Structures are given as C-alpha cells and as structure tokens.
Amino acid sequence: MGEVRAALDAARLVGALPRLAAAPRGDGHLVIDIPGWKAPEVSGAPLRQYLRRLGYDARGWGFGTNTGSTRRDIERLAARVVELAEETGRPASLVGWSLGGVVAREVARLHPEAIDRVITYGTPVGGPTYTTVARAYNRGADVDGHRESRRLDESNPIRVPLTILFSRRDGIVSWQACIDHASPLAEHIEISSTHLGMGFDPDVWSIVAARLADRTRSS
C-alpha cells in the first residue's frame, strides 16, 4: 500500500527545484536512460530533460516500453551503445530503473570499454525472484536471463563504477535484493522513496547528477 504514495514522492520535486538547479554542470557525454518493466520510455522523460539542462546528451534507450524480454534487450541495447560510443568517441553512462537496471548492468558487463558508469535504482541484482511481484515477473520477464546474470556475477563481475540506489520503503523490490556483493566498484546508497516514485524523487535525481559529475571530474 505504501506504493500509492508515489505521487507524493513526485510532488517533492517542486520544493527541490533550487537544489536540483545547483547541481554540477555536465560535460555533454552520452547518458542513456532505461525504463523499468512494463514502463513506457516516456517514464524517464522528466529525468532526461533535467540531465539535458545540466549539459548531458541524455537519451531514452530507443525501444519503447520495456516488455521484459531481458536477453533481447541486452543484445540490442549493447549494439546501440557500442555504436554510439564509437560515433561520439566517448563511453556512455547508463541509468536504469528496476528491470532497466538489470539490462544496464549486463550491457556494462559485456562492453565495459563502451560504458563509463552505471546507475541503478530499485534494481534486483539477482533478478526478480526476490520481489513482491515475482509471479508476475515470472510470467512476463526472461527468468533464464536473470539466472544467467547471477551466475555471471560470480564468474565475471561488472568492472565499471556502479551506483546502486535502494530503499527500505520499496514495496516492489526488497532492498536486500538490490545489494551487489560481487562487483568490485559497486557503491550502495540508501534512499527513502517508494519503488514507483524513484524516477521522480529529487534525491534520486541529485545522486544521478552528482555521480555523472564524478565522471566529468575524472575525464
């Protein structure tokens, strides 16, 4: 029931506008936003617009609604990211919400040379098994792909910087399922948002902007 408060999380954006406007300016590098399961690509439009205002080349992933075909999405997004990285001459950053974060992680594992960093929020590291909607995921998402992700975490951990946002108020994905014990460059940050409100939470936006700016300072 706590998820019905997602609208309140979004409303907090209004009061946070001065803080968000004071975020560090971006360097123009490519940032790709990946929606969560069953979420349309437009769900990330407000965050992308904010990142563009900061000076990033923020884009959607280009495949519309995330239908849960994880393996297919990893393959086609990986191809797109590699192509764009070659065009721009710079690695891209990936931002993924929920299942979108699973896709982002696997793209980074496959092509670390094309990825600068990955930022996820509400993302089950081990797949949907530990979520409160596991049965729905099992009907609609590529469960085998998630099992493969868990195996790869042990044999081939992700080696690009990872910022992992999790919340104890998340009514969809348990916060314990978001913890990455394998990736050597994983950073975990606790937030107070609901799962559905994360994409509109000003704290999430601030952290995304700050971590992308870390990339700017290190380039």
TrEMBL record:
Q: Name one GO molecular function term.
A: hydrolase activity
Q: What's in the keyword line of the UniProt record?
A: Hydrolase
**Listed InterPro entries:** AB_hydrolase_1 (IPR000073), AB_hydrolase_fold (IPR029058)
Q: Which SUPFAM superfamilies match?
A: alpha/beta-Hydrolases
Q: What's the protein called, per UniProt?
A: Alpha/beta hydrolase
Cite the Pfam families for this sequence: Abhydrolase_6 (PF12697)
Instruction: Give every AB hydrolase-1 domain span.
Output: 35-187
